[in-house]
Amino acid sequence: MSELRRDPVVGYWTIISTERSRRPIEFHLSQPPAESECPFCEGREAETTPEVFAIRKKNAPDAKGWDVRVILSKMPVLSKSKVPDSYGQGLYDLMEGVGCHEVIIECPEHKHDLDELPSEQIERVVKTYIARINEMEKDPLFNYALLFKNHGLIFGSANDIVRHSRSQLIATPITPKRVKEELIAARNYYERHDRCVFCDMLRQEMKEGARVVAQNEHFYAFCPFAARHPFEVWILPKKHNADFGKTALEDIPDFALILKECLGRIRGLLNDPPFNFVLHTAPFRHKKKPGYWKTIDEDYHWYIQIMPRLTHDAGFEWGTGIYINPTPPEDASVLLREAEWKG
Amino acid sequence: MSELRRDPVVGYWTIISTERSRRPIEFHLSQPPAESECPFCEGREAETTPEVFAIRKKNAPDAKGWDVRVILSKMPVLSKSKVPDSYGQGLYDLMEGVGCHEVIIECPEHKHDLDELPSEQIERVVKTYIARINEMEKDPLFNYALLFKNHGLIFGSANDIVRHSRSQLIATPITPKRVKEELIAARNYYERHDRCVFCDMLRQEMKEGARVVAQNEHFYAFCPFAARHPFEVWILPKKHNADFGKTALEDIPDFALILKECLGRIRGLLNDPPFNFVLHTAPFRHKKKPGYWKTIDEDYHWYIQIMPRLTHDAGFEWGTGIYINPTPPEDASVLLREAEWKG
């Protein structure tokens, strides 16, 4: 059972994950399991937790015949769905670690790179993302679900080094601090300007063109002006939309294509670097609290943030929150555009 | 020349460091220079920038005979001292990268571990920290100076893998977001309770004793309740003091001892892990803005945060700001207390 603990000064929450509890010796990296032992490959369904969702051509759940498969994490960061017990301990606040942690297996074959899948398969992956986020929204205990992908070797747990393309979705009982900060900032901008800050950013980026990486009819990808990571790329829908879960079906092929292109260019240029991507989207809006994010459909705008991990946050970044990026985004975008990419 | 750029949504600042500008190929780690090539060793003073401060037994600056030596960074994150030019570019804000970046070389011999130095030498290091911070405060352009130490191999720049014990001090023209958040939170707590939140935390920690790592007459070290990193340790002065730069001379030996012990126990238990430490202290308070942090001497409390880097922030941490810590601080403190330590 994991526990959410609140720092008494600034108020950030930490998950103390006893499911993953580790003694010093266990922090050393184990070897990645061989391909023949990968539990995410088709035909080894019995070795994972039961599937909670799949796009399948044939057969019943937990058998062969799927294209995309979603399971519960074996080492969930958060789990269980009941009203969390929450209490104080002197100065400190605690909450039971209620939530949900799913793994989205993006292909039946043992492939490592999402961008190497055919675009029709990436479309299925995107449809799965949408379906699972919309499903989690139904649970009144959850306020947010973060979709993210950790790719590559730097992340330090044996589970992370299974080289089979997948993403993760974690629902939380609170709206996380970083999410809230962005939502509030976007609302403040909207109140002042009567325009979405992301739409304004898109307009300026498309006009200047200095930081573009790729674009198509419905999406635009660029290196953000104040990128905290070298070669960071954001993908935004050109048409205003706060909620990734409400992406129109006809926009999905374009999104799959631009995601494939951006990840492919990053992999080609930077020699398959470790990266994370994170979806920024509107929080769940349950009927029981209609007022809280009332204007969010106007003032927020979803996007995918792709962060190659070539540098590491060290003391300065930790102490100040200011990141040092040694590659100006204007240079990064030229290099990414000019990188070889087969498409 | 580096540039500070402000994200138009949340408002975080990034340093685009053209001094450190890197093309893709340069992100691969170079080999650490051999000991015989270490520019920080005594006798190689001519290979660094001129010293700006030293504690020396003999000789003029930039010659042998020093115990602690401070130089300007060869690859400064921020540099120059003049009123920074700051302007807008459509939606975006920019500021020239004004500031100062010093390297504090902690011993003349080629030693890697601060905790292995004799405690009298660590006292000299601490006195140097205090002297440099107080010196930087005199420059009216600087609002803050962050003292930090990056130790070990994960930080990805050739410069970082010189294995010679040192810390860094970077002065910034702004009060960084993370610093401000903590200062404001501490002030809010004080307004509500008429007590310092850190003093209250110390009182509870000392009473419970469940997370203590080490203590002596003037200092207390413990694993914080909501630790974001496994085996994270905070060292606080027992007597209320907001400003590290105002540490009493007679308290320095106790601080040197507890720092030595905490770093030594972490190194012993975790097999010399990479770590960062960061000093949290009051920002500079220039006469020209007396009102801004008026009550800070009452409501803030300095501390050192030591973070072994055994896990890495990945997509979830980045997207939510919620860290996952697999080792409860109550377990970490027992392991650290019981670790072999020669003292």
Jot down its keywords.
homodimer; 343 residues; alpha+beta; HIT family, subunit A; ten-stranded antiparallel β-sheet; four-stranded antiparallel β-sheet; globular
Would you write up a description of this structure?
- Two copies of one chain form a homodimer.
- With 343 residues, chain A is an alpha+beta fold.
- Chain A has a single domain (3-338), classed as HIT-like (HIT family, subunit A, 2-Layer Sandwich).
- Chain A has helices at 119-137, 177-193, 197-208, 252-270, 296-299, 315-320, 329-338; strands spanning 3-6, 13-16, 51-56, 66-72, 86-89, 92-96, 100-105, 144-151, 166-172, 212-215, 219-222, 233-237, 275-280, 303-308, 323-325.
- A ten-stranded antiparallel sheet of chain A has the order 3-4-7-9-8-13-14-12-11-10, with helices on both faces.
- The longest helix of chain A has 19 residues, at 119-137.
- The first copy, chain A, is globular, with a radius of gyration of 20 Å.
- β15 (323-325) of chain A pairs parallel with β2 of chain B, so a sheet runs across the interface.
CATH class of chain A, named: Alpha Beta
Please indicate the count of domains of chain A. Answer: 1
Q: What name is given to the CATH topology of chain A?
A: HIT family, subunit A
**What oligomeric arrangement do these chains adopt?**
homodimer
Q: Which structural class do you get from the secondary structure elements of chain A? A: alpha+beta
Q: How many helices of chain A?
A: 7
According to DSSP, the number of beta strands of chain A is 15
The neighbouring-strand order within the major sheet of chain A is: 3-4-7-9-8-13-14-12-11-10
Distance between the termini of chain A: 44 Å
Shape of chain A: globular
Main interface pair? A-B, 91 and 91 residues
| Estimated helix fraction of chain A | 25-40%
**Low-pLDDT segments of chain A:** 155-159
